[in-house]
Amino acid sequence: MEATTVPNFKGGEGEYVVKTYLDEQNRIMQGLLPPGASIGMHMHEKNSETYYIISGTGHVVMDDGTEEDFTVGEMHYCPMGHGHTLINRTDSDLVFLGIVSEHHD
What we know:
Elements: E1 4-7, E2 15-22, E3 26-33, E4 38-44, E5 47-55, E6 57-62, E7 67-71, E8 75-78, E9 82-87, E10 94-102
Antiparallel strand pairs: 1-2, 2-3, 3-10, 4-9, 5-8, 5-10, 6-7, 6-9
């Protein structure tokens, strides 16, 4: 898969470098957020998302204001009907897997 660099992804700061696999049920992304970069707050209306941290530390803010740090080997889950943002507040790259699963009626 070829990497794509996306500036200000979902209204976030900096660049998001991503390799994506997509089918009808799932979007699987290997993402990299450089220091200071973020994925903007976004809602999961018809899907859910899981982040698995490969390297670095990510800071997640949920739409209800809950905040938490996640590091290597840890996971974050955002259920359908909720929103979140992912921020790299460190001086090292944040590398993670993001898995978005579609929920069909």
